[in-house]
Amino acid sequence: MAIKKIITYNLNGIRAALSKGLLDWIRQEDPDIICFQETKAQFDQIPVMEFELAGYHAYFNSALKKGYSGVGILTKDKPDHVVVGMGNEKYDKEGRVIRADYGDISVISVYHPSGTSGDERQDFKFQWLEDFLDYTVNLRKERPNLIISGDYNICHKPIDIHDPVRNAHSSGFLPEEREWLTRFIDSGFIDTFRYFHPDIPHQYTWWSFRMNARERNLGWRIDYNMVTLPLEQKLAGAGIHPQVKHSDHCPASLFLNF
């Protein structure tokens, strides 16, 4: 059987990340699939040919607004089918979802909205969360084997955030957001990092640029590789890689035995 390595990585700008050595890191890491979020680039601003020369098929979904949001998938194996967006114009214009199908397995790169800029976007986030859950419930009727990798912009439990007390009313750790993530997992998903590392604290995927947060490891775990329950028997490992620094996020990896 072959081990497949899948990585999710919020780049906080794909062009900035490339200028910091992203492509060399990809060649060295050699994942089978990478799910990108927050590419912040239009398709014609992304050096697709460089990814192809590195051995990947490259697919992207950019926001209509320039320099904003955007997701992508790099994959060694060519998918049978690629779907851009989730069929909802309100969200699809923000470039938040892209899906690649391989046989009976689908990989989704998702970038959940942030609510940190104010009440309007927090309300947008709450509505998105409900609609995204509905989207996954319906999709699983046709595609039950899902891998949904990306920036969920939510810390699930106190172990996933450096200061759960002071952040109890912060967007990304609100009770309603955490309750939604519980409902999402209970609908039939596995948080693969916690599946393998249920009790290890101080494991984060994002750090503020302020207060030397990354150097002090004052972070949040908001990036996940989620899989549906039918894939549990294929899980082979999961990790977080804070030493990789092309972004204010770090990559999170998943290994599956096919």
Which features characterize this protein?
6-stranded mixed sheet; 28% strand; 258 residues; alpha+beta; Deoxyribonuclease I, Chain A
Question: What is the CATH first-level class name?
Answer: Alpha Beta
How would you sum up the global shape?
A: globular
Radius of gyration (CA) equals 17 Å
Q: And the CATH topology?
A: Deoxyribonuclease I, Chain A
Structural class: alpha+beta
Number of domain units = 1
Distance between the termini: 5 Å
Helical element count?
7
Strand order, largest beta sheet: 3-4-2-1-14-13
- Helix percentage: 25-40%
* Nearest-integer average pLDDT: 97
Count of extended strands: 14
State the fourth-level CATH superfamily: Endonuclease/exonuclease/phosphatase
Main sheet record:
6 strands, mixed
Report the β-strand fraction as a percent range. 25-35%
CATH architecture classification = 4-Layer Sandwich
List SSEs in N-to-C order: EHHEHEEEHEEHEHEHEEEEE
Show unreliable segments: none
Summarize the structure.
With 258 residues, the chain is an alpha+beta fold.
Description:
With 258 residues, the protein is an alpha+beta fold. It is 25% helix and 28% strand. The protein contains 7 helices and 14 strands. A hairpin with a 2-residue loop joins strand 6 (97-102) and strand 7. Helix 5 runs parallel beside helix 6 (175-186).
